[in-house]
Amino acid sequence: MIVKYLFITVLFFNCLLFSQLPCPLVFGTITTPKRSFFNVPDETLYTIKSENQKVVCLSEGIVSNILYHSDNTKTLIIRNNDDFYVYSNLDVILFKSKDKIEKNQLIGYAIRDKDDEKYVLQFQFWKKTESIKADLNCAKSY
Question: What is the pTM of this model?
Answer without folding.
Answer: 0.79
